[in-house]
Amino acid sequence: MAARMKLKLKTVFVLYFMVSLMGLIYALMQLGQHCDCAEHDLPKDRAISRLQEELYRLQGQIRQLEKAKQPEKKQPPKSSLSTIFVITPTYARLVQKAELTRLSQTFLHVPQLHWILVEDSPRKTPLVSNFLMKSGLTYTHLNVPTAKERKLQEGDPSWLKPRGVEQRNEGLRWLREDRKTEPGDNGQQGVVYFADDDNTYSLQLFEEMRSTQRVSVWPVGLVGGMKFESPVVEGGKVVRFHTGWRPSRPFPMDMAGFAVSLRLVLANPDACFDGEAPMGFLESSLLKGLVTADELEPKADNCTKVLVWHTRTEKPKMKREEALQVQGLGSDPAVEV
Amino acid sequence: MPKRRDILAIVLIVLPWTLLITVWHQSAIAPLLAIRKACHHLVKEIFIIPERLAVHHHRLSDEGAEGRREAGGQDSKEYCASDKDIVEVVRTEYVYTRPPPWSDVLPTIHIITPTYSRPVQKAELTRIANTFLHVPNLHWILIEDSQRRTPLVTSLLRETGLNYTHLNVETPKNFKIRGDTRDPRIPRGTMQRNLALRWLRETFKNNSQPGIVYFADDDNSYSLELFEEMRSTRKVSVWPVAFVGGLRYESPKVNAAGKVYGWKAVFDPHRPFAIDMAGFAINLKLILSKPQAYFKLRGVKGGYQESSLLRELVTLNDLEPKAANCTKILVWHTRTEKPVLVNEGKKGFTDPNMEI
C-alpha cells in the first residue's frame, strides 16, 4: 500500500507538472494571437472601423487619381509658370521661428516658388535646418556671417546700419552659380524677389510679379513713416515716387516693393547691394546698375493696390525670464522657441 | 486501483488551469492595448490624407493652372555642392490656395478672432488667413469691434475663400482702452469673444456636430501642427505658449500620469488657470452644455480673463495636455509693432482712398 501511495504521489506531481506546463504554453501562444471577439463591440471599435473605412476609401481615391495622372508624372514638372526665387535674410532672435513659420505658411500657397534662406551666422543653425526640412517648400539653405563692424549692436536703432546686405548678395551669388548648371532658355526664366522675414505678403503679389520682364514695382504699406509708399504711374509708366522720406533717391522704394527678372540678374553678374551706401540707398545701389526709372513696370493695378506690408514684430519682453535666469530658474533651454 | 481518488486528484489539478485559460480567452486586455494604438495611428493618417487628396482635386479641376507641384510620394533630391554645404531639396507636398475639402470625419475647429481697425489690420488678417487656408474643417468666426461691419474685412473674408462667419459688436467707449496702454481692468476683445460664444450656442443648439472652439488673436503665430493637436480635445486641452508672461514660454505643469497639476509661470502662477488665450481649446459640447459660461466683463484682474471662463467649464483635473505632454511650442504670442506714421503729418500725406 505504501509503495503504491508513493508511486501515486509521484504520478500526481508529474501529472500536475505536465498539465501546468501545457497550460502555460497555450496561454503564451494566445498572447500573440489576433483576438476574434466580435461580441465585445466597444464604441472605440466602431470608431476605428469607421476611420479605417474612410482611410481605405481615401487611399483608394488617391490611387485612382494617381493612376490617371501617371503618364505626366514621369516627365519633370515642365510648367509654363516662371519660378519665383525669394531671397530672405534671417538672423537668430527669439521670434525667428515664429516669423519663419508664418512666412512659410504664406509661401506654401504659391506654386513654383523657390525659397533661398540665408542665415546671418557662421554656421547653419539646427533650428532653421529642421524647420526648412519640415516646411514642405522647395528651398536652398545658405549662411554668411555679417562682419562685426557692420553688425547692429544691442541698443542700436534699427536704421543705423543696413541689415541683410551680405546675405542678399550671397543669395544672388548662389543663384548665378546655380543657373550656370541649368542650360537652355528655360533655366533663365524666373523672377527674383527680396522678402524680409517679418513682412506680410498677400498671395496676389506673387502672381503680379511673375510677369516681370525687367524690374517691376508696386506700393508697399506701412513704410517710410507713412501708410504706404508707392510709385506714381501715368500712362502706364512710372513718372515719380510718392514717398515722405528722401524722395531724391534714384529709387526711393523699400526692398519689398520691387522684383527683378532672373534674366537681368544673370546678365549683370556684378550687380549687388552696396553695404557702404548711405541710409535708404540700399535698394538704389542694386537697381541703378540694372534699370532706369522709365523702364520700370508698374504692377498692382498701376500701383493702386497695396499687396505687401512692411510689418515689424515687437521684441518680446523678457524681463522676468532674465530675472529667473539670474536665479538659475530660467525656462528649459532644450525647448525650442 | 483507487479510481475515485485518482480522478479527484486529476480533476483538482486540471480544473484551475482550465479556468485560467477560459478567463484569459474572454478577457479584453490584449485587444484594448492594440485598439488604442490603432486608433491613434489611424486618426493621424486620416488628417494627412485629405491634404494630399486636395492637390489632386485641384490638378484635375484647373488643368490650365500648370505648375502645381505633385503630391503623393516625396521626391527628395539631395545633393551637396563640393565647395559649400548647400542642400537643395525638392519637396513635393501640398500647394493650394483654397481650403482643403471638407471631411466628414474630422471635427470642425471654430476659431474665434476679435479684430479692430488699425493700420496693420489688413496685413494681420491677410497672413493669418494664409495660415488658416492650410487647415481642413476650419470655421473662422471673425468679430469686429465696430458699429458696422467694415467693407475692408467683408471683402477680405470673401476673397480668402475660407469658411467664415462675420460678426460685429462695438465695445462701449467707456470700456475701450485709451491709446495703447494696457488697462488691466478692461481686457480687449472680451465682448467680441462673448458674442461669438453666444452665436455658437444659438447656431448649434440642436446640432450635435463635433467641434472644437479656439480663441486666436490676429497677431499671433500658429504652426499647423497645433490645429491637429487640438482636434482631439474631449473637454479642454492645453499646451505651452511662447512669449507670454515675460518668459520665453509659459506652460502647464504635467505630472508623470499625464495630468496637469500646476502652471509654469512667473506672473501670478496661482491663478486658477495661468494660461494665455492662445494656450487652450474647448470642446463645443462643453460650451453648449454650460450656457452660462462667458468671459467676465468687469472687475477682472490682469491675467485672469482666461480663468473667468475656464473655471466655469472645467477643473484642473479635466485638462488634457497636448504638444507632447506640453514640451513643444506650437504657438507664439507675437505682437506687431505699431507702425510709425510720422511722415503722414496732420493732414495725411497719402491718398486716403487707398486701402491698407
From TrEMBL, chain A:
The chain crosses the membrane at residues 12-29. It comes from Xiphophorus maculatus (Southern platyfish). Glycans are attached at residue 302. Mn(2+) binds at residue 198. It is found in: Endomembrane system; Golgi apparatus membrane. The active site is at 283 (proton donor/acceptor). It is a single-pass type II membrane protein. It comes from the Eukaryota. Its EC number is 2.4.1.135. UDP-alpha-D-glucuronate binds at residues 89-91, 120, 163, 168, 196-198, 310-312. Keywords: Disulfide bond, Glycoprotein, Golgi apparatus, Manganese, Membrane, Metal-binding, Signal-anchor, Transferase, Transmembrane, Transmembrane helix. This is Galactosylgalactosylxylosylprotein 3-beta-glucuronosyltransferase. Pathway: Protein modification; protein glycosylation. Belongs to the glycosyltransferase 43 family. The record marks 229 as: Interaction with galactose moiety of substrate glycoprotein. Its cofactor is Mn(2+). GO terms for biological process: carbohydrate metabolic process; cartilage development; chondroitin sulfate proteoglycan biosynthetic process; extracellular matrix organization; heparan sulfate proteoglycan biosynthetic process. GO terms for molecular function: galactosylgalactosylxylosylprotein 3-beta-glucuronosyltransferase activity; metal ion binding. GO terms for cellular component: Golgi membrane. It catalyses: 3-O-(beta-D-galactosyl-(1->3)-beta-D-galactosyl-(1->4)-beta-D-xylosyl)-L-seryl-[protein] + UDP-alpha-D-glucuronate = 3-O-(beta-D-GlcA-(1->3)-beta-D-Gal-(1->3)-beta-D-Gal-(1->4)-beta-D-Xyl)-L-seryl-[protein] + UDP + H(+).
UniProtKB/TrEMBL annotation, chain B:
Pathway: Protein modification; protein glycosylation. Its EC number is 2.4.1.135. The keyword Transferase applies. Its main location: Golgi. It comes from the Eukaryota. The active site is at residue 306. Keywords: Glycoprotein, Golgi apparatus, Manganese, Membrane, Metal-binding, Phosphoprotein, Secreted, Signal-anchor, Transferase, Transmembrane, Transmembrane helix. The record marks 250, 343 as: Interaction with galactose moiety of substrate glycoprotein. GO terms for molecular function: galactosylgalactosylxylosylprotein 3-beta-glucuronosyltransferase activity; metal ion binding. Its cofactor is Mn(2+). InterPro entries: Glyco_trans_43 (IPR005027), Nucleotide-diphossugar_trans (IPR029044). Mn(2+) binds at residue 219. Glycans are attached at residue 325. UDP-alpha-D-glucuronate binds at residues 114-116, 145, 188, 193, 217-219, 333-335. It is found in: Golgi apparatus membrane; Secreted. GO terms for biological process: carbohydrate metabolic process; chondroitin sulfate proteoglycan biosynthetic process. CDD domains: GlcAT-I (cd00218). It catalyses: 3-O-(beta-D-galactosyl-(1->3)-beta-D-galactosyl-(1->4)-beta-D-xylosyl)-L-seryl-[protein] + UDP-alpha-D-glucuronate = 3-O-(beta-D-GlcA-(1->3)-beta-D-Gal-(1->3)-beta-D-Gal-(1->4)-beta-D-Xyl)-L-seryl-[protein] + UDP + H(+). SUPFAM superfamilies: Nucleotide-diphospho-sugar transferases. It is a single-pass type II membrane protein. Belongs to the glycosyltransferase 43 family. Involved in the biosynthesis of L2/HNK-1 carbohydrate epitope on glycoproteins. Can also play a role in glycosaminoglycan biosynthesis. Substrates include asialo-orosomucoid (ASOR), asialo-fetuin, and asialo-neural cell adhesion molecule. Requires sphingomyelin for activity: stearoyl-sphingomyelin was the most effective, followed by palmitoyl-sphingomyelin and lignoceroyl-sphingomyelin. Activity was demonstrated only for sphingomyelin with a saturated fatty acid and not for that with an unsaturated fatty acid, regardless of the length of the acyl group. Homodimer. Interacts with SAR1A. This is Galactosylgalactosylxylosylprotein 3-beta-glucuronosyltransferase.
